[in-house]
Amino acid sequence: MEKKEKQYRTRFLISGNKQCYLIQVTDIAYFYSEEKVTFAVTRDHKSHVLDFPLNKLEDQLDPQTFFRANRQYILSADSIRSIQNHFNGKAVIRIEPSPQDPVYISRDKVPTMSTLRRIVDLLKVCNYNQFQLYTEHTFSYSKHETVWRNSSP
To answer: In the list 8, 15, 75, 91, which could disulfide-bond 62, CB 3.0-4.6 Å?
Structure first.
């Protein structure tokens, strides 16, 4: 039996004042959440209110195209213009169209392996050829006791 490939959302139905309209996912630069309201910002700088929290949106979007930068933002890889180091181990991402506030990726956001793979894929799309991963503390993997035996908690 063939495994069915996951289908991702391709458009959103938006409720306007007098009518509903569609926006294509390919037209969206990023999603953000502010005071429990989620917005989709299109490449033409327009904001649209959505009836989905970011956690549900993340599951509906293609991870090859969209990346969860932090609790507030989901970004399209095509909207990213640069990624720069910032103090305290954070990175700041410049996206277009620009939001009011800077978009940060915090060092304390502990990624899973699937998240790391998505980050590497995203960096590949942005033509980055170097990625440094910084970790703090050691982990006590059972088959590698020599790594952690004399380490602090």
So the answer is: 8
Written as six digits, the tokens of 50 are: 């959505």
Q: What is the pTM of this model?
A: 0.70
The CA-to-CA distance between both ends of the chain, in Å, stands at: 47
135 compared with 9, residue with greater pLDDT: 9
Calculate the dihedral angle through the C-alpha atoms of 84, 86, 91, 92, rounding to the nearest 10 degrees.
-70
Interval 94-145: pLDDT, tens: 899 999 888 988 655 545 666 677 777 777 777 777 777 666 555 566 666 6
**Residues 70, 74, 78: CA angle, nearest 5 degrees:** 125
Q: How many CB atoms lie within 10 A of CB 74?
A: 21
- What residue has token string 């305290």? 88
